[in-house]
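hey so i finally got around to running the thing on that chain from the lab meeting. sorry it took forever, my laptop kept dying and i had to restart like 3 times. anyway pasting the input first so we r on the same page abt which one it is
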Amino acid sequence: MIEVQGRFCRAVLHRCIKGARTYRGKPSGDWNPYFCDEYQVGTARCLGGESPRHFCIDEYEYPNQQGAIPVVMVTWFQAKTLCEAQGKRLCGDDEWTLACEGPERRPFAYGWARDATACNIDRPWIQPDDGLLASRDNDKVAAEVDRLSQRLPSGAMPRCVSPFGVKDMGGNVDEWTVNVTLGGKPYRSMFKGGHWCKGARNRCRPTTESHDESTAYYAEGFRCCSDTAKMP
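ok and heres what got predicted. didnt touch it at all, straight out
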């Protein structure tokens, strides 16, 4: 695990200087648009108040082993249980964000400009068969996940690393976290990081909170955190 200590800001304003686009891909004049290719270096204005954080986080996505393929098709409840079985806990979304952006509050774990060669992102989308993914036949589920998966082994892209040294925090798989910043609404669950498919934002700040705790899908995994006193 990696120790992280710093100050979390609830809301940060970055300044997009290239490729600002709306959710639908249309040009945008916003400083903080839905999509952005490059932000002004060093411009990260804290708008939401700061508070200290001190914790430990897995270096890699679960099972937290370099060279392992990240686990997917687990619910938030299952991810929470798997972390607790190791004497850890599921990360808060605030902890995940701080571990990704570092003290400078970078928009991307690796810097200020989006780089499709740094992390496992922007892969072509493949139409899933949701009927197979929801099947009670584990072999059929596994076969469909294998057909869809474009996961890479943990640590396979060495430039996909945060200022704290945490790997693969943009792309590869979406990661379950505990919904802290929105107070557990609408669900206790929240996704961070984005997956490998083209169209995901893959930045440190964005969240996806529209999936409830029972969701399990082919591009969704997690990593664990712990208090510093429990660091192995």
